[in-house]
Specification:
470 residues; elongated
Length: 470
């Protein structure tokens, strides 16, 4: 799409040699400079002001509605669809009657010798003379297979572009859900590490009390403080990841760029999605029916087939009709009514290879469209099977990691009791806390992976937008 740049011309006040004007000239120049700067910055300011503000707590439906309203990807796809619709109207207009008004008034002279006529009995110059003609003209193609096929091709391409808009909506939904999941994962990891840090601080206080009582060695307190610092560092890292994920989400939503909001909508994990995962062949067939990019590729094949037929039909005759009625004379006040009714038949006999070249071009475009359709079908099948496998694997990971996290929490409590009773030092406790941190991270990562796999399966089957709440 062409880009239009706004230009601002700045003209400074002309200088004058008048001494009394020197003190007034400088404020005028400064004012115009400031005015020019404001004009140059105004488009950016208006664009920034036009961006929506994010709520304090952003839900997934709010994010999806905002993205589907403001996305540049969707606006671009819609613009291309509008262009295709305009091309379809232009092509259809070639098949419909064309009505126009033609009027002229001329004054002219002519030189017969310049026209190759040297008649001794007539003067060489004729005129000046006047001529006027004004009439309504009607034209229509009665039989033009070439234009008919061209219109059918344009209509198929318009249909293809409409499905590309739907495909853009699916992609936007997947991007928003994925980015929202990134933010949820970072937040969950931060909150988990915050709880583990608090636990480590409690254990450090317990260890310090035991050191003061002479029951434990200073080394135990040193180990526990190292654990507190390690968990604090990890928590700070995920705090920054959470901020970065929120800024990325705000950018995708085309909203005011800020991290001053929270995400907490568990619907992004897709626990309530009803996605069939048992029959792979049925899932693939459903995807081929629903995937907008595959349907768009089918429409492109139909458009290429119509273009080929249009090129081949150029050898057929074309029938046209012309009707005009109006006034003809020397001036608008000296004229008479005249009319014309004509029929025209055109049959190409020799076009120096033009039709053959157009046919070859259309055949190549058709083969290219069919190849793109086959590639899209392969991608659909790959996406569906990969997403199904990902969901099945992620479900197992969630089950395993959840059980392991439960066992790790129990281990921490048991080793804490052993340490408090003086049965062992806190080495076992530190190791148990490390394993708990790892288990919690694996549980959060597995849940994130499951949510991402469900989102990819919804996209692979062409129902991403319909699957998540609006």
């Amino acid at each position: 799409m062409p880009q239009f740049a706004q230009k601002t011309n700045v003209r400074f006040a002309p200088q004058t040699s008048h001494k009394n004007c020197s003190r007034h000239r400088t404020p005028g120049v400064k004012f115009r400079v400031l005015q020019a700067i404001c004009l140059l910055l105004s488009p950016t300011f208006v664009a920034a002001q036009g961006r929506p503000e994010l709520p304090a707590e952003l839900t997934l439906p709010q994010a999806l509605r905002m993205a589907l309203s403001n996305s540049t990807l969707l606006r671009t796809s819609q613009a291309r669809s509008d262009e295709a619709a305009g091309q379809t109207e232009q092509s259809r207009a070639q098949l419909l009657p064309q009505l126009g008004l033609v009027a002229r008034q001329t004054y002219y002279t002519a030189n017969l010798i310049g026209l190759g006529l040297d008649i001794p009995t007539l003067p060489s110059q004729i005129g000046p003379a006047a001529g006027m003609d004004a009439r309504v003209v009607l034209r229509e193609n009665l039989f033009n297979i070439t234009q008919l096929r061209a219109w059918q091709s344009a209509r198929s391409r318009e249909r293809s572009s409409r499905f590309l808009v739907n495909n853009a909506r699916e992609l936007i939904t997947l991007i928003v859900v994925t980015t929202y999941l990134d933010a949820l994962r970072a937040k969950a990891s931060r909150d988990s590490l915050l709880k583990q840090t608090q636990l480590a601080q409690d254990l450090y206080r317990t260890t310090r009390d035991r050191v003061n009582q002479g029951v434990s060695a200073e080394l135990d307190a040193n180990r526990e403080m190292q654990q507190v610092n390690t968990l604090t560092q990890q928590r700070q890292e995920f705090e920054q990841r959470y901020v970065a994920a929120k800024l990325e989400l705000a950018s995708i939503l085309q909203a005011h760029i800020s991290a001053d909001f929270e995400v907490s909508d568990a619907a992004a994990y897709g626990d309530m999605l009803n996605l069939a995962t048992s029959d792979r062949n049925a899932a693939i067939q459903a995807a081929l029916i629903s995937r907008a990019d595959y349907i768009s590729a089918e429409a492109n094949v139909q458009a290429a087939q119509s273009s080929l037929k249009s090129a081949q039909s150029a050898r057929l005759p074309t029938l046209r009709v012309l009707l005009s009625d109006g006034q003809s004379g020397s001036t608008p006040t000296h004229n008479v009514n005249t009319y014309t009714f004509a029929g025209e038949a055109e049959l190409p006999i020799f076009t120096s290879g033009l039709i053959r070249g157009e046919t070859k071009e259309a055949e190549g475009a058709l083969r290219e469209a069919k190849s793109a359709l086959d590639e899209t079908r392969s991608n659909v099948e790959k996406d569906v099977l990969t997403a199904l496998s990902g969901v099945e694997w992620a479900l197992k990971e969630v089950e395993t990691s959840t059980g392991n996290a439960t066992l790790s929490r129990q281990e921490v409590e048991l080793t804490r009791a052993r340490f408090t009773q003086g049965i062992s030092d806190n080495t076992e406790l530190i190791n148990a806390q490390t394993r708990l941190s790892q288990a919690e991270d694996a549980r959060i990562r597995a849940r994130y992976t499951l949510g991402l796999a469900r989102a990819e399966l919804a996209r692979a089957t062409g129902v991403a937008e319909a699957s998540y709440p609006k």
